[in-house]
């Protein structure tokens, strides 16, 4: 920070914003406004150019450290940035090692653990009653687990019908956005209950900490619960592509926690906001409107990310939307913090002096630093007590606890022109912070990975005989009804009424939703080939319905209606944050004749076949609906084909 010119202690100025006489300086110590406004400073009620918790930054600067740790100085926040880098490095290593359990643990708990370490070491948590912290933790975790258990399969059961359009799309938007917005509203409950029970002094940063704590624990518990199947599926996920693991880490480990922390931090800040006793002079309606707009913006953020999760867009687009919305939430939170710190109730000036945490000048203890404009409330009470122990150089008693090797000399500003002795500003060493985080993550990873690993069963072993099974195809379909397209271009058999299928038809074919077992969906349809090969048609069909699909293997000797064609089996790893983890398997087989492509496609949850599930013999299909699919693939007939 630029060295401020000394100001005589007895000089005063009239603030045109709050209409009071205050010590002369760059900022009003009463309301924080510029005492000598310049062009470009913006309105005094927002003071957008100087952030109250980090005067060297503007309000619009999306700095993660100064936003999530507004009570600390720039020097103290540096190890936090190193901790963020360590989280990213840890996730990158786990992605390369294909360790989804460790990735989920770090992505879910990395940021909450880092913040808890910081809050504890800096004294932030000591300013909040223990009952409030415990209540927030218990309610956030309990509500998150309950919400996931209730809604975990709601969206995936609808989104697993990708072949439908129109009504299915509306159901996805309705249910998917309902789950996303419902979860965001449910996150408000812990902070709301604590606020109702609160009887002590209110200040915005107390509510901010409670809101951030509630959000991070809610999202962590929800993520761990939703992705619990990955802990027991396999210690090493060799089948999951690195690309998918990377996007999962970026979304779940960075974007989602930051968005949730900003959203609930803003809500908590607003709930604990106590307006200044002279709020009418500061334009309180602007503050209320500003906070309301920020809150609406955050709710809109959750609607956008909920839409991105369920719309079926590519992973790059999903990540882009999440990052963009996290930045919007971050700036919205900074605006909310700025408004509340500028306009909340403060203690009257005491006439004492203290060392400013940011510009490192000894200044009069007021609501705002006259030199840099930092809010006095943007610091833990322990820090303020330490920084109040200031004395002119040479006038400190030898037995004063501040007169030791922990003291330093500091210049005065808006104070008598002399050098002052005060406690050294605490610098957070990165070593204990990062070491504590590493130990904590190691212990948590051992719990969340080691214990489920004990329940992992070895892969089934086949012995033929007796585990030879029966072929998956070859069951008669003559008893099933047939669909005939307009003009008789093709016909195909489909499941009979009363079977475990819900059948719908349209002009292009049949959609049969499997309602038994694992569920799934079968699509028997057609489209003009327009001189494309069967392979090209299949690729285009998969790209349109499953943009994030990854090819597992190609089906040899694929046939549709006994016409040689092309077939492939794909895996889809959904990135929908509001559903339980389900690996999807997609089978698409296409054949072309008379420039008409006939397509048989099936999708359902991946379920490895074994002696006790499936046809009883090894098969790479590994999706239950494939056992029925074979009955209908070769029932296709083009126009003019001889009867079979």
UniProtKB/TrEMBL annotation:
**UniProt name for this protein:** Zinc ribbon domain-containing protein
Organism name = Mycolicibacterium pallens
The protein's UniProt keywords, in alphabetical order, are:
Membrane, Transmembrane, Transmembrane helix
Which residues span the membrane?
79-95, 101-119, 131-156, 176-198, 205-229, 249-273, 285-307, 319-337, 434-454
